[in-house]
């Protein structure tokens, strides 16, 4: 079943100009890019996007980081896209991410870990709607 997921090239990877390499990897792995946009989140938008983590000790640091520079938000489509994308990301901590995963290749720390990916089909739907209208997804 074709499925969509939301990816965010986070500010660390965007700053390091890793965006092109990440997009190339998506295409190589068979993900179709259905929407893509560069944006600079406000702290408030980052807080709203990561609201599920608001009680976590790293919340204020995470949201400041996510608002620290431009990001690229993407809608990716593939068979079983949500899980396949999470596998391609690797573990949250790049030091623990399997070789050749995006976080292993491009992440710097447990916070500056290069890419976000939706973790369930339901969250993917919500996260895609957070950033894109239906008319912006092709
Ligand atoms: P994401 O939501 O960004 O795809 O990452 P994830 O599911 O692998 O990890 P999650 O637990 O949802 O955490 C969201 C983001 O918060 C930052 N983080 N910092 N300092 C810390 O211990 C810590 N733990 C998580 C990371 O940027 C993580 O991706
Ligand atoms: Mg998460």
UniProtKB/TrEMBL annotation:
GO terms for molecular function: ATP binding; metal ion binding; nucleoside diphosphate kinase activity. Residues 2-138 form the Nucleoside diphosphate kinase-like domain. Its EC number is 2.7.4.6. One of its GO terms (biological process) is UTP biosynthetic process. It comes from the Bacteria. Homotetramer. This is Nucleoside diphosphate kinase. The lineage of its organism: Bacteria, Pseudomonadati, Nitrospirota, Nitrospiria, Nitrospirales. The gene is ndk.
């Amino acid at each position: 079943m074709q499925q969509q997921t939301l990816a965010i090239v986070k500010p660390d990877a965007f700053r390091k100009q890793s965006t092109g390499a990440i997009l190339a990897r998506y295409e190589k792995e068979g993900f179709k890019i259905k929407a893509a946009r560069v944006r600079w989140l406000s702290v408030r938008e980052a807080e709203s996007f990561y609201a599920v983590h608001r009680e976590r000790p790293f919340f204020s640091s995470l949201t400041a980081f996510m608002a620290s520079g431009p990001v690229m938000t993407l809608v990716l489509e593939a068979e079983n896209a949500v899980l396949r994308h999470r596998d391609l990301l690797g573990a949250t901590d790049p030091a623990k991410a399997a070789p050749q995963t995006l976080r292993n290749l491009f992440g710097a720390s447990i916070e500056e870990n290069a890419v976000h990916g939706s973790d369930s089909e339901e969250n993917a739907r919500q996260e895609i709607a957070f950033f894109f209208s239906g008319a912006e997804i092709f």
